[in-house]
Write a structure and sequence with these properties.
By secondary structure, the chain is α+β, with helices and mostly antiparallel strands. It folds into two domains: about 100 residues, no CATH class; about 30 residues, no CATH class. It is flat and about 85 Å long.
């Protein structure tokens, strides 16, 4: 029985390593097939004399692994993997009259917060300056 376990242990190690490599190769192949220019730039849309090309930020990530544990003649194997992708619109390219212009999409809160902060700073800074000059 001991000879049988000795024979199986190296074979199990090869199986775990092979499984890990195969898993990572498959994940990389799937991911590589999707990481192209078309993932960032959408299909052009034309209406009349204007063509619009959507632009997005795209991120991919993956990981995987496998392991083997030998404890008092027992062999255990395990493995796992996972991945994810995310996309966020950033803007669009407008082609009009032979000219291409990139137009970023802005967060609507920026249009509210920036003017409000400027208004508050314009109101508060003169008062603060007067207050500090009186203290001297």
């Amino acid at each position: 029985m001991d000879n049988e376990n000795t024979f199986l242990t190296p074979l199990a190690g090869i199986t775990a390593a092979h499984t890990s490599v195969t898993l990572l190769e498959r994940l990389a192949d799937k991911l590589g097939g999707r990481a192209s220019v078309t993932a960032v730039y959408g299909e052009p849309i034309t209406s009349g004399e204007v063509t619009v090309i959507p632009v997005a930020e795209v991120g991919f990530g993956f990981g995987g692994g496998a392991g083997r544990e030998t404890e008092t003649g027992k062999i255990g194997e395990g493995g796992g993997g996972g991945g994810g992708a995310g996309a966020r619109p950033h803007g669009f390219i407008e082609i009009k009259d032979g000219t291409a212009t990139y137009k970023p999409l802005r967060d609507p809160w920026v249009d509210v917060i920036v003017p409000l902060a400027a208004l508050l700073a314009g109101t508060a800074l003169p008062r603060l300056a007067r207050h500090l000059s009186k203290r001297r």
